[in-house]
Write a structure and sequence with these properties.
Elements (H helix, E strand, L loop, with lengths): L2 H39 L9 H25 L6 H29 L14 H27 L5 H28 L6 H34 L14
Keywords: Membrane, Transmembrane, Transmembrane helix
Length: 238
């Protein structure tokens, strides 16, 4: 396989992972926000929510991971075969510890960044800033690809539009919840941080599925004596 094909495949995987990340993150902030509004409407105690709230919140987070990963996978025209499901599950399971390890690394690095003021007034903002930089670096190329494609070749219009819409909606919801959290002095403003713990497993899920199918295809081609190839990434354009 040539270097050109490998580079293109890496870019396709990056776009799929970014779309899964954004879709899962958007679904997470929307469902958690709706759950918080429901609790407020019912007059529930925020400090001691009922058991059904504590159960529903993680279930909605898991649903966001699954929906984001599957949505991205299908958005890029990939079939949901049994090997694909196995890869999605494996990638999602591995993504949880990976996201937690990333959080710990960011928290550790934040301690090395000087803060212009009393240390006790710093809060988590240095860690949040570092985490934001990591997310921006991860999403930058896929977002640029979407803008360029819509302005030019328009080969993957639906995927481009979904990616940009998910990004803008997520930013809007995070901005609103952060403002509310700061005004109320509660954890509402941290939803933008917690969404990464959901979005990362969704991204690793599609990566796992793609790696599983690519590995199977290479083994099949090798046994047949044919040069290995990678299935094209052809998103729907409607």
């Amino acid at each position: 396989m040539s270097d050109t094909v490998r580079s293109a495949t890496g870019r396709q995987r990056l776009r799929m992972c970014a779309d899964a990340f954004l879709l899962a993150g958007l679904l997470f902030v929307l469902t958690q926000g709706a759950l918080a509004l429901l609790a407020t409407a019912l007059g529930l105690d925020e400090g001691a929510p009922p058991d059904w709230i504590g159960l529903l919140s993680p279930l909605l987070a898991v649903a966001a991971v699954v929906a984001g990963a599957v949505g991205s996978w299908r958005l890029h025209g990939r079939p949901l075969s049994r090997p694909a499901w196995a890869g999605l599950a494996l990638g999602a399971v591995l993504g949880g510890p990976l996201a937690s390890a990333g959080f710990m690394a960011v928290a550790g690095l934040s301690q090395l960044v000087p803060w212009p003021g009393p240390r006790r007034s710093e809060g988590p903002w240095v860690a949040v800033g570092l985490l934001t930089l990591v997310v921006v670096a991860f999403l930058a190329l896929p977002v640029v690809d979407a803008v360029r494609d819509l302005a030019g070749a328009r080969t993957s219009v639906l995927a481009d539009r979904v990616r940009l819409a998910a990004l803008l909606l997520t930013l809007a919801v995070v901005a609103v919840t952060t403002a509310i959290g700061v005004a109320r002095g509660d954890e509402t403003g941290e939803v933008g941080v917690f969404l990464v713990l959901v979005a990362v497993p969704a991204a690793t899920a599609v990566l796992g599925a793609d790696l599983v199918l690519t590995s199977r295809a290479r083994r099949r081609d090798a046994s047949a004596g044919e040069p290995p190839d990678v299935a094209p990434d052809v998103p729907r354009t409607a």
